[in-house]
């Protein structure tokens, strides 16, 4: 009976939505192909043969249908990063969280409605490191008849910042997991799939954007890199930030954009300089002191159509790799646009208070006392939230376990605070044996439908201090405050912005610092919260929220699609 009622509701919703919205349909053929980068031929996994993959364009209110054909040799899922998936959690995509993987030679169709958000999001593989090359832009324009809260740009241009390895990325990850050590760093960064002419054999592999003098362009900047935050600049040009993570912002003029993996930034660029050629460039923001990283620069070229003769492009002066003041200034100067169509003020009443420490750690190398791994002290690198290092199930997805009430897949005892209070950001605790070891578990936080949650993220100095980009599936959250050192509620709560805080789905918790977010859990299902540095997710820097069903059928998770992949 319950299934029949859901079916009737779905039919009614489908018929009524046809009046004002459309069904946008795509096919993704995911398979290996060989391309040339940095003087060598390399096999990658790609969608429809392109890097980046296809750009999806929809209007708010549309239904998106994507047929995914897995012709690759790897298990696969696709995550629609930042999409709310209201009552469509089965389509969210993370492997063993909301679905089992699409096996090689099999297919699956994702279908969901995009509602209550506009701007730039993106899609990517959510299995192993495949998202290094399996990703693309997801652009949500206003519903037909509606407009942007800023003057219509002359043109819209996706700018996807990525990372490139001279190796099979799945092999890179597997080698690190096998030894318990850190993975090899990337060999290059890219702009729309091209490394740019600072790298060997790449003069003709440089992204170029032609512009008209005095025209304004909307650049939709996406950080699709696996493990690096990035600075992005355009020589001699200012940019006006108008949205982050598909949430409109108060206009903010800057000459540099700082973006962490998973984050998006919409900027207006006016071509108001002398007609010539100018480099756009991106280099890493590497906040972890003493940790090796890919310290290279990717660049593309902006060419004015009115330039009379070819000229040597002007190069911007980029921030130093450890320029935390510039990064912090950018992240804290963004505020939410309260007049935007989907603005919701932050909740004032809080039902669930959580204090979550995040950082690295170690796990035992193996069962044998003589086993030696590649991490510090001969152990395995690990990562945790509140000293719980997350481990995904592998027999059934967590969402199926939730819907069918299957026991033994996860436990609902994720702690609201760390098991031990210590001086979190003190470097002297970096290798403290009393607090550095973690244990694997599948602990989640269970919360009631429509409850409000406040989380204090506290970075730690364990192993090393760095900025951690934390992504929450299924929701946007308000960023109330950010700062350095140990969070002090007596002082830091006075800094909360409850008037016009920025909304995000991914936040960079400051290096050696903290951040406070709030959100309303109005979407039943299982929703991951994890570090979007891909090196840290398999190490366990994650947990999940299990949001209970609401009191009515319209607030309950519907049954899974009949073709949902089986484990």
Automatic annotation (TrEMBL):
**EC assignment:** 1.10.3.2
Q: Reaction catalysed by this chain?
A: 4 hydroquinone + O2 = 4 benzosemiquinone + 2 H2O
Q: Which SUPFAM superfamilies does this UniProt record tie to the protein?
A: Cupredoxins
Localization per Swiss-Prot or TrEMBL: Secreted, Extracellular space, Apoplast
Task: Please list which residues make up the signal peptide.
Answer: 1-21
Question: Which keywords annotate this record?
Answer: Apoplast, Copper, Glycoprotein, Lignin degradation, Metal-binding, Oxidoreductase, Repeat, Secreted, Signal
What InterPro entries does the annotation carry? Cu-oxidase-like_N, Cu-oxidase_2nd, Cu-oxidase_C, Cu-oxidase_fam, Cu_oxidase_CS, Cu_oxidase_Cu_BS, Cupredoxin, CuRO_1_LCC
Pfam families given in the database record: Cu-oxidase, Cu-oxidase_2, Cu-oxidase_3
What is the first-listed, main subcellular location in coarse terms? secreted
**Per the annotation, how and in what number is the cofactor bound?**
Binds 4 Cu cations per monomer.
Q: Gene3D superfamilies this protein is in? A: Cupredoxins - blue copper proteins
Plastocyanin-like domain boundaries: 30-144, 156-307, 413-550
| Cofactor list | Cu cation
Q: Which family does it belong to?
A: Belongs to the multicopper oxidase family.
Q: What does this protein do?
A: Lignin degradation and detoxification of lignin-derived products.
The name this protein goes by in its record? Laccase
Query: Gene encoding this chain?
Result: LOC107024584
């Amino acid at each position: 009976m319950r299934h029949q009622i859901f079916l009737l509701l779905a039919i009614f919703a489908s018929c009524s939505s046809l009046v004002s919205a459309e069904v946008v349909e795509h096919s993704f053929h995911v398979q290996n192909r060989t391309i040339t980068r940095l003087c060598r031929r390399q096999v990658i996994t790609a969608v429809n043969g392109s890097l980046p993959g296809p750009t999806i364009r929809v209007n708010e209110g549309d239904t998106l249908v994507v047929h995914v054909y897995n012709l690759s040799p790897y298990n696969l899922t696709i995550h629609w990063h930042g999409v709310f998936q209201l009552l469509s959690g089965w389509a969210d995509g993370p492997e063993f969280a909301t679905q089992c993987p699409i096996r090689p030679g099999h297919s699956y169709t994702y279908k969901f409605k995009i509602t209550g958000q506009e701007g730039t999001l993106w899609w990517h593989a959510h299995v192993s490191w495949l998202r290094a090359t399996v990703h693309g832009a997801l652009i949500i324009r206003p519903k037909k008849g509606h407009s942007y809260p800023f003057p219509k740009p002359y043109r819209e241009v996706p700018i996807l910042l990525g990372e490139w390895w001279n190796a099979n990325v799945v092999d890179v990850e597997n080698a690190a997991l096998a030894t318990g050590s850190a993975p090899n760093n990337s060999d290059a960064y890219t702009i729309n799939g091209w490394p740019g002419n600072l790298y060997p054999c790449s003069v003709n592999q440089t992204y170029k954007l032609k512009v008209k003098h005095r025209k304004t362009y909307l650049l939709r900047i996406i950080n699709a890199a696996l493990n690096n935050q990035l600075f992005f600049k355009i020589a001699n040009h200012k940019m006006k930030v108008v949205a982050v993570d598909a949430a409109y912002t108060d206009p903010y003029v800057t000459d540099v954009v700082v973006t962490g993996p998973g984050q998006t930034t919409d900027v207006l660029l006016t071509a108001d300089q002398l007609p010539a050629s100018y480099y756009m460039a991106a280099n890493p923001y590497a906040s972890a002191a003493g940790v090796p990283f890919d310290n290279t620069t990717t660049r593309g070229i902006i060419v004015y159509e009115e330039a009379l003769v070819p000229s040597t492009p002007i190069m911007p002066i980029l921030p130093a790799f450890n320029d935390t003041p510039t990064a912090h200034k950018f992240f804290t100067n963004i505020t939410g646009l309260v007049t935007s169509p989907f603005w919701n003020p932050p909740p004032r009443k809080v039902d669930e208070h959580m204090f979550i420490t995040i950082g690295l750690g170690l796990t035992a190398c193996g069962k044998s006392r003589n086993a030696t791994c590649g991490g510090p002290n001969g152990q395995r690198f690990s990562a945790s939230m509140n000293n719980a290092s997350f481990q995904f199930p592998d027999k059934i997805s967590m969402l199926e376990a939730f819907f069918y009430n299957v026991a033994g897949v996860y436990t609902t005892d994720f702690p609201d605070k760390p098991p031990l209070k210590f001086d979190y950001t003190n470097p002297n605790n970096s290798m403290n044996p009393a607090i550095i070891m973690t244990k694997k578990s599948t602990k989640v936080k269970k919360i009631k439908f429509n409850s409000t949650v406040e989380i204090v993220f506290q970075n730690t100095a364990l192993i090393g201090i760095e900025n951690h980009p934390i992504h929450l599936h299924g929701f946007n959250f308000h960023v109330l405050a950010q700062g350095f050192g140990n969070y002090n509620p007596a002082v830091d709560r006075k800094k909360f912005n409850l008037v016009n805080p920025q909304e995000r789905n991914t936040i960079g918790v400051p290096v050696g610092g903290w951040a406070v977010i709030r959100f309303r859990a109005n979407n039943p299902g299982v929703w991951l919260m994890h570090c979007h540095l891909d090196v840290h997710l398999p190490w366990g820097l994650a947990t999940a929220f299990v949001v209970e069903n609401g009191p009515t059928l319209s607030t309950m998770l519907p049954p899974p699609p009949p073709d949902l992949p089986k484990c």
